[in-house]
Specification:
The protein is an alpha+beta fold. The chain has two domains: 13-132, no CATH class; 142-326, Roll (C8orf32 fold). Helices cover 36% and strands 24% of the residues. It has 13 helices and 15 strands. The protein has helices at 3-9, 14-27, 30-35, 78-84, 121-124, 142-146, 151-154, 169-177, 186-190, 199-205, 210-224, 270-292, 316-326; strands at residues 41-48, 57-61, 64-69, 74-77, 90-96, 108-114, 128-132, 182-183, 207-208, 229-235, 238-245, 248-253, 257-262, 303-305, 310-312. The strands form four sheets. It has a six-stranded antiparallel beta sheet with strand order 13-12-11-10-14-15, with helices on both faces. The chain has a four-stranded antiparallel beta sheet with strand order 3-2-5-6. A three-stranded mixed beta sheet has the order 4-1-7. β12 (248-253) and β13 (257-262) form a beta hairpin. α12 (270-292) packs across α13. The longest helix has 23 residues, at 270-292. The protein is globular. The termini are far apart.
């Protein structure tokens, strides 16, 4: 009996056919599938070595976005590789931990692998497995830190802070920045050298350290008004908050520390005014360092970040120049 005649007499139910096709797509190596349409390819898969959890997210070759990985394997075609990769490109995966991570789920991670000579894998055709030890509670990149600023997560708690619609925005920011928690080190709370809590966890526990306060208060400020120019400020061993509006810049820190500078404007003498503003900013920063007790080697700003933006700096002078240009 011919196969065509058999199928006419014995039709395969649609549901069985769909399951069969899905099985083929899921379990056959990507290389075999793409040979059928004439394009060589390899499958990329990502895992956390600590938990054996699969990692999902956006994939970058150096800084070039090449696709998004969601379950199973990401199919990298040879044409995609030729267009976006070099012989020594870094492969970066940025995403959020999934339910497999338990209490550490829904936290941002950014992992990078060096993949020299990836080209020869197209001759082999097998999937490539990338593994890394993820520690989502100890963010090491600006992107991972940024993931802890979560305005929507703390919007409910704003009702406990008595902001006043009849007050100015700055007065209400001051009120939110007065939020206090019992200072407890990460080791005291979690027996770890570094452990970042989410804003909701910090507010619920009512204790934490400087980064817990900074990301929680910034989240509250941005929940109050998402348009505000407010950021967490990253120092070598510390985190504080900066807000600015026009020519006014204010640094907030735990313990009701607040330092403000109002930059001067003079359209007829811009050169002299710029130098005076730079010096005034240096004095304000020095006053802040002394008030909080930052040591000389802890006084270099690295970056500003909020939920939407990351701004990195070479040094404090680079930051001051940015502030002056922003206020123009």
């Amino acid at each position: 009996m011919k196969l065509k005649t058999w199928f006419k007499r014995n039709p395969v139910p649609g549901s069985i056919l769909i399951i069969f096709i899905a099985f083929i797509i899921m379990y056959l190596p990507a290389q075999i599938l793409f040979y059928a349409i004439g394009e060589r390819s390899i499958g990329l898969r990502f895992y956390d070595s600590n938990t054996d959890c699969e990692l999902n997210g956006k994939i970058y070759a150096d800084d070039i976005f090449i696709g998004e990985f969601k379950n199973e394997s990401f199919v990298l075609t040879e044409s995609n590789y030729d267009y976006n990769f070099s012989n020594n490109s870094n492969l970066t995966l940025i995403g959020r931990t999934n339910d497999c991570f338990g209490e550490n789920r829904d936290l941002v991670f950014s992992e990078t692998w060096i993949v020299p000579n990836l080209k020869h894998y197209f001759d082999i055709g097998n999937d490539i497995f990338f593994r890394s030890k993820i520690d989502p509670r100890h963010p090491k990149t600006y992107t991972e830190m940024q993931g802890f600023v979560r305005p929507e997560e703390v919007r409910y708690y704003l009702s406990n802070i008595r902001t006043n619609p009849n007050k100015t925005i700055w007065e209400n920011i001051d009120k939110i920045a007065e939020y206090r928690l019992a200072y407890v080190s990460d080791y005291g709370l979690f027996k770890r050298g570094e452990y970042w809590q989410t804003p909701a966890e910090t507010i619920e526990k009512k204790n934490g350290d400087c980064e817990d306060w900074a990301v929680s208060v910034l989240s509250l400020i941005k929940a109050y008004d998402s348009s505000l120019n407010c950021y967490d400020v990253l120092w070598p061993t510390h985190l504080s908050i900066l807000c600015y509006n026009d020519t006014i810049f204010t640094i907030y820190d735990y313990g009701k520390i607040k330092k403000t500078i109002v930059l001067d404007r003079n359209p007829y003498n811009q050169m002299d005014i710029e130098q005076e503003n730079k010096q005034a900013f240096r004095i304000m920063l020095s006053d802040y360092f002394d008030s909080y007790g930052l040591k000389p080697d802890e006084r270099k700003i690295s970056a500003l970040f909020n939920e939407n933006e990351i701004i990195d700096f070479y040094d404090n002078e680079d930051f001051i120049q940015w502030a002056l240009e922003t206020s123009r």
